[in-house]
Structure formats: C-alpha cells, structure tokens
Amino acid sequence: MTTDRHATPQWSASASQAPAVAGEDEGKQAGSVESAGHAGQAGRNQGAQPGNAVKQRTPLPERVWRVLVWGAMVFFLVNVLLLIATVAVNSVATRWFGTLLPQGFTLHWYAQAWSDFQLASVLWVTVEVVGAVVILSVLLGVPAAYALARVQFPGKRFAVLVFLLPLMVPPVTYGIPMATVMYKVGLAGTLPGVILANLVPALPFVILVMTPFIEQIDPNLEAAARIFGANTFRYFRYVLLPLLVPGMLAAGLLVLVRTIGMFELTFFTAGPGTQTLVVALYYAVFSTGVRAPQSIDAMAMIYMAITLIWVLIALQFVSPTQIVSRVKEQKR
Amino acid sequence: MNAPALLPPLAPRDTKGWLVAPALLFIVALFIYPFAYGLVLSFQPMNGGGVWANYVAFFTDTSMWPTILVTLKLAVPATLLNVGVSIPVAFALRRNSPYQKLVTTLLVIPVTLGTVLIADGMLTYFGPNGWFPQALQGLHLYTDEVRLTHNYWGVLISLIVSGFPFAFLLTLSYVTGIDPTLASAAATLGASPWQQFRRIYLPLLVPGLTMAACLSFVQAFSVFPSAVLLGAPAGPTRVMSIAAAEAAFENYDYALASAIAMVMGFVQLLVVAGMLGARRFFYSGPVTGGKG
C-alpha cells in the first residue's frame, strides 16, 4: 500500500511534468527551426562574403518593417474613420469653425435637410430604383447563370465575354454613349431609364456570382426528381428554387449595396425628378454655399446610415472581398 | 449578333441554352449597341467637318488633349501606390486571424460609401479648418497653411481612400489563394521571410497583381465626382471624364462627348493591354501545392 501510495504521486508528478517539457521542447523546436534557418543563412552568407555582419541582424529590420506596415494600415484606417466622424460631428454641430469640436450640438439640421433636399421623394426614388434593379437583375440573371453553368451551347464564350465587358469597362466610359442613346429615345430622365441604366452593371454581376453557385449544385438532383415524376415546374419549384435561394440572396444583397452607391450612371441618366440619394448628395456638395454645410452633412449621414445598414446585413451572407471584386472566382 | 441564332442546329441541342437569351439581349441592347452607336456618332461631328473632325478637335484643343495627361498623372501614381502598399499589408494579413476580419470589414466601409460621400467628408476633414490640418499644426509637423482640397492632392487622396481598400481586398484574395505550405517548405530549406516573399509569393502573385492593377487603374482613370468636388475642375484636375461630361451635358455635343469617351476607352485599353502583355514574362502556373 505504502509503495503504491508513494508511487502514484511520483507517477502523476512526472506525468504532469511531461507535457510541460514537451511543450517547451516544441517551442524550442519551432524556435530552433527559425533560428537554424537564420543561422544557416548567416553562415552561408559569411562563407560567401566574410565580414557581412548586417545580415545577422535580420530581426531588427524585420521588426521595423512590420511596424511600418502596421503603422501605415492603422494611419489609413484612423484617417478614414475620422473622416467619417467629421461628417457625423458636423451634422449635429451648431457652429464649427477652426476648433477641435463645435460650439454646440443640435439635431435640427436633419429636419432642415429633410425639407431642403426633398429627401422624402429622393428616398422613394432610391427605393424604387434599387428595388427594381435587384428584382430584375435576379430575375434575368439567374436563368442566364443557369444556362451558363449547365448547358454547352454555341456562342457560349461570346456570351461570357458580353457579360464580362460591362464589369471591366468603367461606368463613365460607357455611360456617356448610353446616356446619348437614352436621350435620343426619350428614356433619359425617366424612372425606367434610370433603372435600365443601373441594370447594365448589375445584371452581369448577378450572372457571374450565380454561375459558380449553380455549378456546385448536384446535377443528379434533376435526374432524381424526374425519376420520381416531377415535371419541369415541380422540379424548379420544389428542388432547384430552395437550393438557389442562398445564392440569390447573396447576389441580390451585393447588387443592392452596389446600386445604392452607383453614382455615374444615375448621374448621367437621371432628371430632376429621378435623382437617387447619392446623386442628390453630389448636387448638394457641388453647390456648397447654397445650403448650410451641416445640412449637407446631415443628408450624407442619412445616406451613410442606409448604406452601412445594408452592408452589415450583406456581410452576414457574403465575404468583404465579394463586395469589392466583381467576381471572387476570377482568381482561377 | 446573337451567336446561337447564327448557327444552324447540327445536333439536337439543349433548349435550356436559350435561358441566356433575355439577359444577353438586354446587355447587347443597353451596352453593346450604345457603344457602337457612340462610336459611329463620334465620326459624325455636330458642326460638320470631316469624319475625323471630333478627334482632330480633341487633339488640337488645349482644353481637351491635356486632360489625358492630367488623368494619367492622377491615375498612375494612385494605382502604383494602392497596389504597391496593398502587397505588404496583404502579405502581413495573409493568415486567417481576427485582425484580418476586422481590417477587411473596416476597409469595406470606404468602398461601399462611394466617392461622393468620401469627397464630402474630405472637404471638411482635410479642409483648411479640418481635423487633419489642425492635427498637423498642433503637432508642429507642418507650420504653413495646409492645402489639401480643391487641388491635385485632394483628388489623389480621394483616389487612395477609395482605391486602396479595393486594391487591398483584391490582393488579399490572391495572397490567401496561395498554398502556405509552399512558403513553409521554403522556410524549412532556410529561406528568410523576404526570400519567401521574393521567390515564392511574388512570382505566384504576378497574375493576380496585374489583374488588381488593371482594375485599379481603370477605376482611377475614370475618376469623376471627386475630381469635380475635391479638385480644381477648371484647371489642374480637369480629367477626361469632366471634359466628356461637359461636352455632353453642358454643350449638348454628344458626338464630341462620344469621341472623348472613345479616346478614354482606348487609353484604358492601351494601358491594360500593356500590363497584361508585360505579365506574360512571369510565371503563371498553379498556385497550390503539387496535388493542386
């Protein structure tokens, strides 16, 4: 008994020590791999060029470099956040001139902006345009993406090229000829004109987001549904559509976020009664001096709030990279 | 120009291919046709003259042709800076970490807010009485009057504020697409972080970086709202898009405006083709490990 009792603590002690030692070993090993790398490096260099002592101090330049990179990043982010904060502070400022903070705070600029810029009608136009663009781009884009993902047909490469072009050519370049045509046929300045113009970049975007999404849906599901007697409509309604919904949601949200901020095309094709929020904001900033800057910033805050709410919702379903890059899958 | 319609059916084809037709027709009608129309229109000058009158007018008028140089002078440094800085930053953030998520989320904000809002904020923030000049003078870094709006610098800064996150997020997606075991293998063989970057990451990144640079350049080259709001649209920052918009919406000379838009597209095409051509000198194989 006594030996047993004596043995147990000893064993447990050694057992409890072992992981720690192992952990240390691991750490040492990891460290030694790196330091071996450096040492080997330095040794070889010394062999080649004796007296090159700078190479041995690689950790310092590396550390300086890291601080530099992070410093640049933090500097950029802080400035962007302060830039946005400036708009926020100015929108609630009574008088702000050359001081750190304004003299007083008020909320009345928001009421002022609401009436100054007829925000009720501008917001309604924005909702109509964005809503129509999202619905139409998904309705037209998903069938096209399905065809591109599933069917081989002559002219497919041509179709893909046609869909890629509006994403590669910047809106300013094709917006001017497009606006010219719209003025000729009388669509410019009307709500349908603005919607059609915004559909041009939105539709290819939906197609390029949806095509890889549809490709990864198992084609055997269709065969299985057919065997169980589903006609095309029932297959679409009960098999395909439920599987498509997540992709359609992501594509729709991405189009929504991008259309709210789409300036150039709306600017070129909108008339006085069909301005979206971002175009109205441009005109307000352009004619600074007509209205109080605080009122303009209040409108900017409303625009920012709407955009950021949708960005936050979108980020629940998509990655940040997808909002920016037109096609995530263009990597390879 | 619907290709499927041109070819007679050789074999029983899948009719589902026609699902692409509505979207294709739409893009042809609202993108291809206007482009072709603009091209034709640019050879039909409003005020008469020869076929090339609009282009002659563009390249002889001193308020027109320098806009190419002005635009390049803004777009090239902005592109180099945005892509150049995003490489080391993306490299530092290549591992999936909370920092990566935080930084990418924060960087999406300036991109989605758009240039108009950034211009509005910059007018106050970098303006003579804004926080940025206040901070510079408070820290005695720069004692003269700070002028960062309504000139070249204002537009360049706005191109960086909206362009850097774009370039960074693209670059990050390329960097994270490279199999990290390649670099680990190099490290085992004694490569320093710099050597890993220079010999492993950079050659694999070149195709992606070219793509990012092309997209960044095209975006910077078509700068419009911030050049008007933050620059001096009459002089130092009179970019091509301002000249085109002015011709179309102030002088109602759509032929000349189309000609300017075509020149703009041509310059972009030239630079992008140059970049894509240069990239062929580099490696462009798989970026994953052996089993890829």
Automatic annotation (TrEMBL), chain A:
Residues 8-22 have a biased composition (Low complexity). The chain crosses the membrane at residues 67-89, 122-146, 158-183, 195-214, 235-260, 266-286, 298-318. One of its GO terms (biological process) is transmembrane transport. Residues 1-55 are annotated as: Disordered. Residues 123-314 form the ABC transmembrane type-1 domain. PROSITE patterns: ABC_TM1. This is Putative spermidine/putrescine transport system permease protein. It holds the Pfam family BPD_transp_1. It is a multi-pass membrane protein. Belongs to the binding-protein-dependent transport system permease family. Keywords: Cell inner membrane, Cell membrane, Membrane, Transmembrane, Transmembrane helix, Transport. It is found in: Cell inner membrane; Cell membrane.
